[in-house]
Amino acid sequence: MKVITIPVVEEPFSFSKFNYFNPKSLFDADWCLDLHGFLTRDEFDAKLKEINFAIRNVPLLSKRIKTYSDWSYGLTTVLMSAIIIGTYSTRSYSGSIGSFVFEIFMSIGYIVIKIIVSEVRERRAKQFTVVLNQLFEQYNAQDNPTANWKLAWRSVITHYDIKMKATSEGDINGKATPKYASQAEIVLEISDALSSLMSKTVHFKLPPQITREMTIDTL
């Protein structure tokens, strides 16, 4: 069985569409030899266009939103730390209490935002999955048992969290922790029977008035 995977990607940024924080999700891939005998180049492009049209209104949550929410939290933490240090340096008791309370509210707010972002991500992923599964049911009704379409979610490494620490001996120890995220992929399985049939078929380029196909047996 030949297996072709097509991962989802985010639509490139465009000033005209103003889609930096809410880009559309789409599948983009080039035709390959594994598709020979099942889909031509034009047919494969048409399939991708049909799939992308189906998911146009159910985009996945952009990675940029999560990235910028983390950056915002980091900047807020730095700002709050500066305020607290400044407050304690003035030895103002009331100011210290106010800064402490404000820090608690900021921490709670960040947790709430993280929960909301997580819920939005899960809801969009479910809608995305439902739409594609319905479309692939139609494809499989026509293409089975020659081929089978399905959607898969895989854990992929998005980045590494690198932490450096200096020891008392003057050495520096570092640790890189991989961070994972779920990625949607189209999995197209093509039957070995079709692969075997096409491997024994030789096509000749003949004049327009003659169209023939010769099949030879391979040892």
Describe this structure in words.
This protein has one domain (2-215). Strand 3 (147-166) and strand 4 (172-190) form a beta hairpin. With 219 residues, it is of the alpha+beta class. It has four helices and six strands, in the order ββαααββαββ. Helix 2 packs antiparallel against helix 3 (93-143). A four-stranded antiparallel beta sheet has the order 2-1-4-3. A two-stranded antiparallel sheet has the order 5-6.
Defining traits:
elongated; 4-stranded antiparallel sheet; transmembrane helix; transmembrane; alpha+beta; 13404_t:CDS:1; two-stranded antiparallel sheet; membrane; 219 residues
Q: What is the percent of helical residues?
A: 40-55%
| Assembly state of the chains shown | single chain
**On the 0-100 scale, what is the average pLDDT?**
77
Tell me, briefly, the overall form: elongated
Structural class: alpha+beta
User: Could you give the order of strands across the largest sheet?
Assistant: 2-1-4-3
Number of domains: 1
> Could you state the order of secondary-structure elements as H and E?
EEHHHEEHEE
Q: How many helical stretches?
A: 4
**CA-based gyration radius:** 27 Å
Q: Beta-strand percentage?
A: 25-35%
The major β-sheet equals: 4 strands, antiparallel
Distance between the termini: 20 Å
Q: Could you name the ranges where pLDDT drops below 50 across 5 or more consecutive residues?
A: 199-206, 209-219
Number of strands: 6
Organism: Acaulospora morrowiae
Transmembrane segments: 71-90, 96-117
Protein name: 13404_t:CDS:1
Keywords: Membrane, Transmembrane, Transmembrane helix
